[in-house]
Structure formats: C-alpha cells, structure tokens
From TrEMBL:
It is found in: Cell membrane. InterPro entries: AAA+_ATPase (IPR003593), ABC1_TM_dom (IPR011527), ABC1_TM_sf (IPR036640), ABC_transporter-like_ATP-bd (IPR003439), ABC_transporter-like_CS (IPR017871), P-loop_NTPase (IPR027417), Type_1_exporter (IPR039421). This is ATP-binding cassette domain-containing protein. The chain crosses the membrane at residues 176-202, 274-296. SUPFAM superfamilies: ABC transporter transmembrane region, P-loop containing nucleoside triphosphate hydrolases. PROSITE patterns: ABC_TM1F (PS50929), ABC_TRANSPORTER_1 (PS00211), ABC_TRANSPORTER_2 (PS50893). It is a multi-pass membrane protein.
Amino acid sequence: MAREKRPLLYNRVPQPTLKEKFAALRNLPRFFALVWQTNCWYTIINAVLRIAKSAVPVAILYIGKLIIDQVVLLAKTPDSNTDHTYLWQLVAAEFVLAIVSDALSRAISLVDGLLGDLFSNHTSVKIMEHAATLDLDQFEDSAFYDKLERARQQTVGRTVLLSQVLTQVQDLITMLFLAVGLMAFNPWLILLLLIAIVPAFLGESYFNDQSYALTRGQTPQRRELDYMRYLGASDETAKEVKLFDLSGFLIKRFKALSQQFYADNKSLSTRRAAWGSLFAILGSMGYYAAYIIMILKTVEGSLSIGDLTFLAGSFRQLRSLLEGILSRFSTVSQGAIYLRDFFDFFEIKPKIKVSKTPLPFPNPIQKGFVFENVGFRYANSEQWANRYLSFTLHAGEKLALVGENGAGKTTLVKLLARLYDPEEGRILLDDIDLKEYDILQLRKHIGVIFQDYLRYQMSFAQNIAVGNIDEQNNRPLIIKAAEKSLANLLAMKLPNQYDQALGRRFNDGIELSGGEWQKVALARAYMKEAEVLILDEPTSALDARAEYEVFQRFAELTKGKSAVLISHRFSTVRMADRILVLEKGQLIELGSHEQLLQQNGRYAELFQLQAKGYR
Ligand SMILES: Nc1ncnc2c1ncn2[C@@H]1O[C@H](COP(=O)(O)OP(=O)(O)OP(=O)(O)O)[C@@H](O)[C@H]1O
C-alpha cells in the first residue's frame, strides 16, 4: 500500500523572520518586570552573582599564564636558593579562584532554580486570575484554548528563558574580558573566530525557527492528545469507556497523534544533528588555524609559553562562549516570541463590558425583568439560539420554560444571568438595562443551578458551599441549605456526614447516585439570599417522591421571589405561574397551564404527548 505523504505540522505555521525575532526581544523588559515582581531580592542576588562569575575565567587563564611563565623561568635557573614564594602565591590564588568559581556556579543555579519555581507559581496564579475575568463564550472558543494552553506552557518554559537571558548577559561580559586579551595580541584572531562560528549560528537559528513553528503548529493536536489521555484513563470516563469498549478507539487515536509528533520531531532532530556536526567541524578548523598561528609565533620566540596557553585558552573559551551566545540568541528570541503568546493571553479582554458607574442590584426587585426583542447567537454559530424574544418576568413570578431540545431555554437563562450579552435587543431590570448593574452583585443575587452542574471532588459541605463560597465556614447555613434541598438526610447517612469527601478521585471519597448529586447541587441555590432563582432541569434525576417534595419546598422557599424553572416534566412545569414555550429560539406561547391547554397549541400538544405516555 502506498504511504500517503503527510505534510509536516509546522509547514502550516509561518516562521518568524529575523526582524520579527529582534522585535520579539522587546517583550523581554516586560518579562523581567514580571521576574522582578516575583521576587526582587532573588533577582538582584542573581545579577550580582553572575557579574562576579563572568570575571572568573579570564582571571584563571591569566594566573595560569603567570604560573607557566614563572615555572619556565624557575626551570631555566635551577638554583635551590631561588625564592619560590611568588609561584606558590600564584598557585594559591588560582586554587582560591577555582573554589570561588565553583561556589558561584552552585549559588547561581540555586537562585535560578528558586526564582524559576517562584516565577512559575506567580505566573500560574496570574493566568488563573486573568482567566477568571474572561467571559464564558471566550472559554467556548478553541482559538482561545490554544492561547491559554500556550500561556500555560510558558509558565514552565519561561523559567528556562530566564536563566538563558541571564546566562547570555553573563557570557557577554566574560567574552568582553577575554576578547580584550585576544585583541591585544592579534585582532585577526577575532575575525578567524567569527568565520568559524557564523555558519553554526545560522544553522542553529534556522532549526530553532523550525522547531518553534512545529511546536506552535502542534498546539491543537497536543490538546487533543491530552484529551485522549484523559478519556482513556480517568475516573469520570472509565464507566462509559468500558461499556462502549472505547479504549481501542482512544488508544488508536492517541497512537496516531503521538506517532505524528514523533515523526515530525524526528525528522527535524535528525536534520539538526547532521548539520550541527558539519558546523562543528568548521568551528574546529577555525580554532586549529588560530592555534597553529599561535604555536608558530611561540616557536619564533615572539610569545612566551605562558602567552600561548593564555591565548589558546582564551580563544577556545571565546569560541565556545560565542557559539553559546549566538545559538542562545536564537533560543532567547524564540522564547521571546513565545512570550508574545503569553502576553497576548493577558491582552484578551472580557467582551462583557462592566459599567463604569454600576448601579446596585435592586433589593428587592420592584418590577422584574423585561426582554425586549432579544436575539443571541453563539460566537461559533450562524444560527440564532434566541431571537425576537419579548416578555416580562414579573417580580415574584414563577416562570417555567418549555421547549424541545435545543429550543434555547438554557441560552435564555444565561442571558438573564449575563453570562452573555444579547446581540439584538436588550434586557431591562426594573426599567434599566441589565448592563448598567454591578455584574458581581447581579450574579450574587441570581442563583442558578445548571443541568450540567459540577460534581466537585471535595467534601459534602464544600459541594454545597460553592453556591456562596464566602460562607464556606458557615456550617449552620450549609446545613440549612441542605435541609431545603433534601440533601440533609443524605449527609446523615454518610460516614463522615458533612465532611465526607465526595467522588472517587481522592482517598476515601464516596460516589453518590445521580439524584443524590442533584440534591447536593440544588442546595447550592439556597446558599445565598438570591432575588432570582433559576433551576435548569434541577429534578430530572430525582425520583417522583423527591421531586414532589422538592417542589413543595421550592414554592414555599421562593415565596415572593422570582424564579425560572426549566423542565421537561409537565408535573413540575404546571406548578409555575406562567409557562413560556420556546421553539427554535423564539417565543411561541406564554400563559398559565390552564390558558395554554385551552389554547390547544404546542404546549397542549406536548402535554398530551407526555400524559399519554403515563396512561
Ligand atoms: N456553547 C454553545 N456554542 C454554540 N452553540 C450552542 C452553545 N450552547 C448551545 N448552543 C446551541 O444553541 C441552541 C440552543 O441551545 P440551548 O442549550 O439554549 O437549548 P435548550 O433549550 O436548553 O436545550 P435542552 O433542552 O437540550 O437543554 C442549540 O441549537 C445549541 O446547539
């Protein structure tokens, strides 16, 4: 079978030009500001240590030269009366320098490591903080996820960049010291040095670009790979994966993706290694040409043996330093381009604009919510999820939303909680646009439990406290909320009651049934004194008796408060004051249960359909 020629992933991503790389260096000051913010003392200590360390190599070489010259001198005059003190002083000085140099290296890597860890923690927190400010629809966008993923990768990668940039500066200073010595002897040697190094630099730079483009191009696939890994081995997925026997399917996809990465990376690494060897040979040729010149000059007598060792040593070190600096330039600028991704993430601003002079949420609500011709489309969709919606949710009213799957019920509720802003029309609360109110207060006063509520792998009490996390230590309030949602009886049956860990992910956790989880989630709604309660299919997993009881209580507990209920069960729906029927995002009927039955429209049809099922 002919193998299909598959394009490399990185071919899809344009590679940065040299100009772009230099431009990216402009991100470095901002990066260092972040490092400084992380810990200014470690930053200062690091700089001081590195400056001290950069003077060491030239000092050692120079003392070495003095020692050799002194030894040669002493060897020429083998007289037992000659004073050797100077020689031993030199040796002692070199010994001390060697110890200091080693100590400096260790101190630098220690401070680098500590600063790196702190930096990684600091930036991770910043990413979480910034992500918290963003809108729901930004999380639903895959381009956003790629950015977030790249920003996350930066938190670890950037600690490497940090030590690279610092090493770069340190090496530049060391080089300056060494170059001064070499220049004094013969400036042509510097030229030879450059000729030996430039090809290696260009090669490194080329391959770094390729590897940047490759990694960047692979981001979506990496996310998929992680997702496959999660699906294949996680407590939440294990049940379905086993029942549907999906592991083969998942492993196959994982293998395909990981082999693709491997093949792409291998091709690049192999070419890099081959060219790298060639450039290394060029470098060695340059070095030996210079070495020969120095040897000839020494044989001629115009250089001492000490000079020869000093110069050869300087040249060798300069070569490896320059090589390091040039190739690091590429990695540093590459890293600086990655930094752009990192800072780009912080540039993402929430689309939901917060009013500069926000109004306090009305407590209590006087009139209610008015939807005026509201329309909304999800960012990645052409279809209107809600359109031409005009109705009023009166203060204190219980409104039920009815409609087939995908009719737009949840979307309506999300608009009410201002998780999105309408694209058309507006929503008023007590005659004022919802956008004018303080968004945090708004969310505090609207208690929503979505159908896809989270099952936190935390304690029973914490699972309820998330409804109002400021009150997480208020046990009486948590218990009260649990009583309202019928979760209290459940807690009493658990070995550790309210402190019982839920879920199987961590030690000693207990898994609940679907309906039990729902009772726990429902308690979250009662954790705050919400003005509006929204329950999106809150009882779908409850048994008939529990559902009846929950709604009995709900009606009592929300007396005088507005509430929105989404349910496919008409036994629940009919308890509402009014029922709003949605179809394809639009309002088609609105009225009480009796009115709608009389109308004999869609509601009546759906109601009869369900009733028939029970007969
Ligand atoms: N995050 C999203 N991104 C894009 N489209 C979405 C998103 N969420 C919902 N939709 C689409 O918007 C439409 C309305 O969805 P919505 O969740 O409001 O329906 P629903 O009436 O609550 O359905 P159900 O009864 O199944 O819960 C559907 O066509 C759905 O595909």
